[in-house]
Design goal:
97 residues, alpha+beta, Alpha-Beta Plaits, 31% strand, globular
Length: 97
């Protein structure tokens, strides 16, 4: 699988009920755990004081990432994504054996 740096910004549409937001966020938690268990979600961070997320995601290609991974998130309709494909750097200390 390839790795992708994904920045996600979620904007809840005005007029959306608190119950709907809570329901979708709870479902998002469950789906994120499923994607992590399947190896698609590697790490996820939230910059201090911001409502966006930055994560390392894995998929066979960008099409799979959008359609079968990010597209399955319950908040997907409220999200915008900035995707950067990654490749190993020869000086990455995490790649050393």
């Amino acid at each position: 699988m390839r790795e992708f740096l994904v920045e996600i910004t979620t904007t809840v549409p005005e007029g959306t009920s608190r119950d709907e937001v809570d329901r979708r966020r709870a479902a998002e938690t469950v789906r994120s755990r499923e994607l992590a268990a399947a190896g698609h979600l590697g790490r996820l961070w939230r910059p201090v004081g911001e409502r966006r997320s930055i994560g390392v995601w894995r998929a066979d290609d960008e099409e799979q990432l959008h359609e079968k991974v990010l597209g399955t998130l319950p908040l997907h309709a409220w999200m915008t994504f900035a995707v950067t494909p990654l490749e190993p750097h020869p000086n990455d200390p995490g790649g050393a054996v």
